[in-house]
Amino acid sequence: MICAIIFDWGGVLIDDLAYPMISHIANHLRVRHEDIEIHVRGHLGSDFAKGVISESEFWKRICDALGVSQPRLDSLWTEAINACYSEKQDVLRLIDSLKARRYKLGVLSNTEPPCVKLFHMRGYPQFDTAVFSCEEGMCKPDQKIYEIALKRLGVQPYEALFIDDKEENVRGAQNVGLHTLLFANPKKMEDELEFIIRKESN
Predict the structure, then answer these.
(1) CA-CA distance, 185 to 11, in Å (whole number)?
(2) pLDDT digits over 98-129, tens only?
(3) How many other C-beta atoms are found inside a 10 Å radius of the C-beta of residue 140?
(4) What is the DSSP letter of 70?
C-alpha cells in the first residue's frame, strides 16, 4: 500500500523555471539565451546544483567564458527565480487534500542553494521532508538521493510514489523500486495518482 508521495519541485509543484530563468539571466548579462543555456544545462549547472561550486564561482566561470562582466547583484540566481516563480495552484490543492488523508509527503529536487532558500521562505508545511541536490552533493537520477528521501520519510520503496516531469528521473526512481508517475499536467496527474493508489490498495 502506498503511504508516501514524493514530488519534484520545478515543473511539478511550480512551473518549469529553466527557460524563463535563463532568459532573465541572458537579458541581465546582455548575452544570447543559447550562450547561457549551454553552461546552465552543462557541467557548470550540474556542479552548482550539486553544491560543488558556489554561485559566485558559477558566474565567474560563465562570465569568463563569455567575456562579459560578472553580475554585481548579491545573487542573480535569486533575482531570476523571484522574477519567474509561479506555483501550480491545482497541484498545491491536491497536496493539501493528500495531507488531509494522512499521506506522508516529500519534495525531491535537483536545485541550487538560492532556490532552497526561497523554498523555505515560501513555507510549505504540507511536506514532511524536502531533499535538495545541492545539500546532498548528488542529483537525480542518482539512486542514493531517492534512498535519502525514503529514509527521511520512514518508508520502503514499494510504499512510496514518485512524481517528476523528466523521464530520466522517473526511471531512476523505478530502478530503486518506487512507484512512479510522469507528470504531464495537474488533471492527468491527479487521475493517474488516484488510479495507482486504488490499485495498490487492493
Answers:
(1) 9
(2) 999 999 999 999 999 999 999 999 999 999 99
(3) 24
(4) P
